[in-house]
């Protein structure tokens, strides 16, 4: 709520952050840490823990079928984390850039390119959560 109240609608740029503190917060903490780095670190940590657990399970006396299934699910988790990282990083980079350098509607070509990039990046991040 506090971050949302610091937006202003400008005729040339659209909806932009007008408060300097909110701009610094979203540029240096919200998008890089909370939206970008923290979910990637948490997902990577738990996927590595799952991988370590499967490596440890191999030494125990378990049925071969269960070990095989554990390896398969661990491979799926590792691939999911890789896809998550590859699809999340462009969104975070784009949001940080757009917040710091808003494109004016007075330059139609640059504005159209910015909107196209926004559509592509949003499609990627939505695909990530489907």
From TrEMBL:
**SUPFAM superfamilies reported for this sequence:** Family A G protein-coupled receptor-like
Quick check: keyword ATP-binding in the entry? no
Which residues are listed as membrane-spanning?
28-52, 73-91, 111-129
Keyword annotations of the record? Membrane, Transmembrane, Transmembrane helix
Q: Does the keyword Transmembrane apply?
A: yes
Top-level lineage group: Eukaryota
Coiled coil regions, renumbered to chain: none
By what name is this protein known?
Answer: G-protein coupled receptors family 1 profile domain-containing protein
Origin organism is Adineta steineri
């Amino acid at each position: 709520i506090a971050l949302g109240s610091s937006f202003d609608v400008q005729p040339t740029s659209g909806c932009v952050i007008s408060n300097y503190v909110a701009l610094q917060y979203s540029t240096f903490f919200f998008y890089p840490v909370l939206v970008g780095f923290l979910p990637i670190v948490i997902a990577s940590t738990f996927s590595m823990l799952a991988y370590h657990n499967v490596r440890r399970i191999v030494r125990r006396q378990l049925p071969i079928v269960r070990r095989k299934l554990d390896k398969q699910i661990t491979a799926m988790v590792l691939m999911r984390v890789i896809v998550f990282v590859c699809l999340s990083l462009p969104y975070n980079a784009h949001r940080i850039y757009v917040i710091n350098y808003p494109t004016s509607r007075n330059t139609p070509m640059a504005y159209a390119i910015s909107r196209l990039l926004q559509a592509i990046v949003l499609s990627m991040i939505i695909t990530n959560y489907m």
